[in-house]
Amino acid sequence: MNLDGRRESxxxxxxRGMSGGAKVGLGGGIMGIIIAxxxxxxxxxxxxxxxxLGQMGNVTMQxxxxxxxxxEYSAEEQQLATFSKQILGGTEDIWSQIFKSQGLGEYRDPxxxxxxxxxxxxxxQGQAAMGPFYCSGDQSLYLDLSFFMSxxxxxxxxxxxxxxxxxxxxxxxxxxxxxxxxxxIHSKMAxxxxxxxxxxxxxxRIELLADYLAGCxxxxxxxxxxxxxxxxxxxxxxxxxxxxxxxxxxxxxGYAMPESFTHGTSEQRMRWFKAGYExxxxxxxxxxAMQLDYSQL
Length: 297
Ligand SMILES: [Zn+2]
Known about the structure:
Blueprint: E1 12-14, E2 23-24, H1 31-41, H2 50-54, E3 61-62, H3 75-101, E4 111-114, E5 118-121, E6 124-127, E7 133-135, E8 140-143, H4 146-155, H5 160-178, H6 181-192, H7 197-225, H8 232-242, H9 245-253, H10 266-279, H11 282-291
Parallel strand pairs: 1-4, 4-8
Antiparallel strand pairs: 2-3, 5-6, 7-8
Helix pairs in contact: 3-5, 3-7, 5-7, 5-8, 6-7, 7-10, 7-11, 8-10
The structure holds zinc ion (ZN).
Residues 48-49, 169, 173, 207, 210 line the site of zinc ion.
């Protein structure tokens, strides 16, 4: 991915190493995925893209230095922080342009909170184990950078463009919020009851749309910055494949239970991302997502 000449977003709050307090090591373990899958079967609907992946980090807690000295980060982690700020900055430029040109009103930038381990949010306590997520209550994306290491080590979903896709997916949820789609579907889900088969279907609607919107971002980001290089699209598509509900469930236990899907199958996630990338048409994506009947979700 070509990142030449990019500014870093200033809408970033860095809470790494802050109270909540422990730093999460960049390790990996396989137990987490089993816990995550169990959580899904037990009706943990509404978990987000990283929720499964995020469970997989082998969390090694390391106390913050008691003398209040800032924790030093590895070059790799600092690089990821800079990268994430650059990608967020790009989404701000691209989405304000899209909102103008497609008549969607005014785009308001979300905030990105970098944290390690756990942190408080308007949606309750955020845990690294949940993976990256978006909270509409404070219009913020929450990201523990160790997630990217988990992606790489546990799923072999690697590459800067795959990482950018993850951030763009969360920003996609913010776009859903600004356009009112998120509130509409959340109230439906509340009516059906968290974890019910119907609520899960509605969740798939939100998630596939976020993938589509990530594709729209990539479409215009490439147009503006010439960012998409050889192999990049394949990275994102490969990532989408590896975070499909069916793929993760089969990997964990050998079979998949469609009624428990909350994010969509690998095939769906790849298809929606690609469709967004090819058309860049936001309203078309929203209409398709809202109109799919349950048999298509
Ligand atoms: Zn999501």
